Amino acid sequence: MVAKTLYDKIWDAHVVNTSDDGMSLLYIDRHFVHEVTSPQAFEGLAMAGRKVRAPEKTVVVPDHNVPTTWDRVNGIENEEGRIQVEALHANVKAFNLPNYYEMNDIRQGIVHIVGPEQGWTLPGMTIVCGDSHTPTHGAFGALAHGIGTSEVEHVLATQTLIQKKAKNMKVEVTGQLRPGVTAKDIALHVIGVTGTGGGTGHVIEYCGEVIEGLSMEGRMTICNLAIEGGARAGMIAPDQTTFDYVRGRTHAPKGAMWEAALTWWKTLRSDEGGHFDKVFEIDAADIAPVVTWGTSPEDVLPITGAVPAPEDFEGGKVAAAERSLDYMGLEPGTPLQEIEIDAVFLGSCTNGRIEDLRAAAAVLKGRRISDRLSTAIVVPGSGLVRLQAEEEGLAEIFKEAGFEWRLAGCSMCLGMNPDQLGPEVRCASTSNRNFEGRQGRGSRTHLMSPAMAAAAAVTGRLTDVRELSELEAAE
Amino acid sequence: MEKFTTLTGIAAPMPLINIDTDMILPKQFLKTIKRSGLGVSAFFEMRYDTDGNENPDFVLNKPAYREAQILVAGDNFGTGSSREHAPWALLDFGIRCVISTSFADIFYNNCFKNGILPVVVTPEQLELLMSDAEKGANARISIDLEAQTVMSSDGAVVEFDIDPFRKHCLLNGLDDIGLSLEKSDAIDAFESQADVARPWV
């Protein structure tokens, strides 16, 4: 028998047919839909007189445009945002889509958090969404990736995608994580190693004892950021941690069906000798708590480092670094820990889960955020994450520290809703992209883990979370 | 979708690497429920100052490149978001072809759905075409999809690879949903078999 990778196995189980030209029709098990990338797809269906082929496999939730302030029960003030959310609602009704979480449903949240939470995301599935952070679901050993609106329409109409198989890439993280290092640090460190285009044309399987030791929340953070390394998808072989997370969720299989599913899921591992076109081996001892300094997710450095100079790079990166430093308002040689911040954002599909909020709250407990901050918000990834955080007393910790406690949505990760930053406002952010203008025109984003963002909130500057307690003792 | 067969036009040089989807079309323009009208907002934050005036240094604002139909761009063009609004904006501006050493996967796919040809070339070939593009409006680059060639203004020919299926769709302006629906029987058969193999899905 030919040795297969995890990706090979899921791919093979979903190929409807393959043409002579190498293009395959791939069956899609789950299609997540949100309001921003779907209206033109539904319009296309309607104009062609087509229907949604598998409404029961389609899961719909508005997240990008929704305000996160508590007054949203009264509706969306921004007209364009409201029209988009209303269009989604109208399309749900027109096409009879049964799996729909409205803005004010307590189960609403960021699509990539709602899917796993409700048990829509299962091992071995093919999952797509008109959103580039769809690889998040790969944490369950699913093949999950982002698609454009034309492909959204294609999946709605046919429940398939025309695909050319990607290459296999392995990222193995071995050894022991150092204190203060989280899944976010691992993911950013990996992108720093591979580059933002390093995964292009590949599906990444993350493996090794460090990955196996992560919770599902941590694994979702890792896979969420696969796209920032350019990969089509990221995935992690399902194991007991995965099964324990999935078991009992609303849409997870039950009883005999669960046993049948489990039998198959346990086979979803790369075989010995499975072929990987690219392999990266990372020693966990080399990973520090990191932050980004520039405007690409590959611009990663340990928090103990200093702002680089354009001359430190080669080729096209020299001009790119020059532009980034200018945009970010940073001088080469500045120690990263001397960079003062104006805002902190805790949330997003990368870091808006309960474990993320616990990590940030652990740092903030009994502390106050810096007076420097003009903005400090916590946006839980879903209504259910919010409820759980409130029950665990985390919300109180955030509020006492000086954070605003918000309702679920994409929020300041991309600034399509009212949560945006002004020009030159510098933000410690748990989100996924530090692109120019991402959080608001001219705003400056430093990506980091929830614990690091919480530490930065306390001191008002980029801060090594490991030193926070020592610093306070010295003061 | 409009066919793509041959194109001869002005090529604008954008040597910056990692030109991301937020640069191509910032998020405030994703609120539309239409595909049209985004050209005026393409490269918004590079193209206009905060008062909405054109930035004269931005390549597509320069007289020589205002009618550009081709972009010659640095590595990893289109990195970031899945927003098809990015290629919609390029198309609406008049761009029908982007040439680079590599493209982000989703952006690359999105181009083909909209009659835009993304061409992958080697670093040496990019350098040649970039210097050609830098010559301005008189230097026109020609693309022949059938022959899979790009010709610089001085006649240098660069060959490129492309998937036969995508090429076929682009050459004929085909709607691939229609093509896939023709395979409905195969999809039905797959579903019946998958319902047995993985009934929990």
Structural features, described:
The complex is a heterodimer of chains A (475) and B (201). Chain A is built from 17 helices and 19 strands. A five-stranded parallel beta sheet of chain A has the order 5-4-3-6-7, sandwiched between helices. Chain A has a five-stranded parallel beta sheet with strand order 17-16-15-18-19. Helix content of chain A is 33%, strand content 16%. Chain B has a single domain (6-174), classed as Aconitase, domain 4 (Alpha-Beta Barrel), CATH 3.20.19.10. Chain B has 201 residues and is an alpha/beta fold. Helix content of chain B is 32%, strand content 16%. Chain B is built from eight helices and seven strands, in the order βααβαβαβαβββααα. The model of chain B has no long low-confidence stretch (mean pLDDT 96). Classes of the chains: A alpha/beta (475), B alpha/beta (201). Chains A and B meet through strand 2, helix 2, helix 3, helix 5 and strand 8 of A and helix 4, helix 7 and helix 8 of B.
Keywords summarizing the entry:
heterodimer, A: 475 residues, alpha/beta, five-stranded parallel beta sheet, 17 helices, 19 strands, 33% helix, globular, B: 201 residues, Aconitase, domain 4, seven-stranded mixed beta sheet, 8 helices, 16% strand
Give the helix/strand class of chain A.
alpha/beta
Unreliable parts of chain A? none
Spatial strand order of the main sheet of chain A: 5-4-3-6-7
Question: CATH topology of chain B, what is it called?
Answer: Aconitase, domain 4
CATH architecture of chain B: Alpha-Beta Barrel
Count of individual domains of chain B: 1
DSSP E strands of chain B, number: 7
Low-confidence stretches of chain B: none
- State the helicity of chain B in percent bands: 25-40%
Oligomeric state: heterodimer
Distance between the termini of chain A: 65 Å
The strand count of chain A comes to: 19
Percent in strands of chain B: 15-25%
